[in-house]
Amino acid sequence: MKSYLGKRFVGMVAVMFMVATVTFVVIRVIPGDPAALMLGPEATAVDIEALRSRLGLDLSLATQYLTFLSDLLRGDLGNSIFLGGRPVLRILADRAEPTVCLTLIAIVVAMAVGIPSGIISASRRGSLADQATVSVAMGLASAPSFWLGLAFMQFFSVRLGWFPTSGYGDPGAEFLERMRHLALPGLVLGLVNSALITRFTRTTLLDILSDDYIRTARAKGLGEWPVIMRHAFRNALVPILTVVGLTLALLLGGAVVTETVFNIPGVGNLVVSSVLRRDYPVIGGSLLVIAGVYVLVNLAVDLAYLLIDPRVKY
Amino acid sequence: MNGDSLLEVIDLRTVFVSGGRLFSAVDGVSFAIRKGETLALVGESGSGKSVTSLSIMRLVPNPPGRIAGGGIFFRSRSGAVEDLARLPLRSMRRVRGGEIAMIFQEPMTSLNPLFRVGFQISEAIRLHRGLGRREALREAERLLGLVDIPDPGERLWDFPHQLSGGMRQRVMIAMALSCQPSLVIADEPTTALDVTIQAQILDLMRSLQRELGMSILFITHNLGVVAEMADRVAVMYAGRIVETGTTRDVFSAPRHPYTRGLMDCIPGLIREGTASRRLYSIPGGMPDASRLPDGCVFAPRCRLAEPGCAGAEPELAGIGGDRFSRCRRWKEV
Description:
The structure holds two protein chains of two kinds. By secondary structure, chain A is an all-alpha fold.
């Protein structure tokens, strides 16, 4: 177990190193001079040159790369070209709360909807309930989230007035008030992502229900419900957990469309506006942090297998 | 139903739908098992012997399969005779595990990998005998001892993957016996095990039967196992029984060419000085159940086939004593 964790750590460092290198290369390869961008169209060549040397852009690529890496090791992701030149890490930290909370709401909704409907669907294969569940899941999976978002906004916020239409509350709003702003986008994001979990739960369970030990459980005289919930579902948990983990990691990277539709100041929104502004340090920093989150969520999922399946040994 | 019968299967027909076509995996099978007796159901793969056993337990996967006709009459512990083919599922669950238990072919995959074996055994005990968690575990420990598992108190807490194949099959047997069933259906219980373990498991089953007095329906393709275990044999081919009789009679003088062929397929020991003979095999293969030949279904592979065999299918006819054969030329076998 200890050696496994050690190996995983080395692997994670290697992945992060590669992501950092690719980020560095991509940013340097993209046409456009950050110094010229920062100073705007009226800047003189002398001004630009001065800023370039201040930012270290006149040094050789190798030197720049080494500086970039050593800054990274100290936790310095650089400063934004815009946004008042604030450190990228700070900017990301400010954007983390809405994205993390939105993700948590969405994943809870996705599991609360997806897993039970997958179970019902699998346990009554071919029935009306099964067909209805599969159709709804297909519909949700193929509904664009911007469309679903706008439809929900129109119905729940505009017509019923239950939720605020968009935003994240006024500056200094209470936590609960901020969460009220996330309820509707969380619901939309959760429903869209529940479709995959439904289908996956259904398929995995159907697969398991034809396994030999399920026949053994039935041969004991167990009723259909204990057979499905105790014997089949536990076995389906490992694959289901994998999908939930991937969904979680994906959402933590910022749900760009939903954040845009509901105007939530999250990571997804930040990445989009930075790309439009060519704010390279922010783009690069976000890439790194998102990659790091992916790697950590994956590790957490792998460790969770240990709790479910006694055959898994690290 | 006959007074000393525990189970009487009468004209059982189990059908499957495959590729939009309906075919009978089991077609008109009848047999009886007496109390304390072992009946072996023998045949090649695809002969319908496993489907017969799953039909008795009502465990035929549906869809694609279902019992389409016939009766499965079982004398329950209370003395009442019930037709399992028509029993509501709720009552069937009382029979499953409680009165009829089953041991499966694959001990590797027949236990749930996520639960400790103690839990898996005690689950049935709690269900049918209404014992509490702790008492059921103590009973499971006793059963593990009964099937000769060393350190039963420790093994209760093992997961299936921590046990060898032979040990797992012993656990399956312990589980099957946990509620003192009057009938145990053993579907190829030793096929997946290596030969020395096979012998141990068969010994165990025989001694448990002597001790507990249950009847056994033994499903196998291995005639050597039949000779060792069974009082009576029913040979199946293409979803039908083609010959039945006591094990001694059938083995000493088979009365159906298929049985004869199966026995000729057993390798004999090559003695010094005798020329080694090529192992016999029955020509051809089991016919596709959806495209059975007219007349006798075995005729296309039969050494004794004559033009008349392609006419009407012969009945399973009494040929004296407790013996039945589905061959027109049984006297010549």
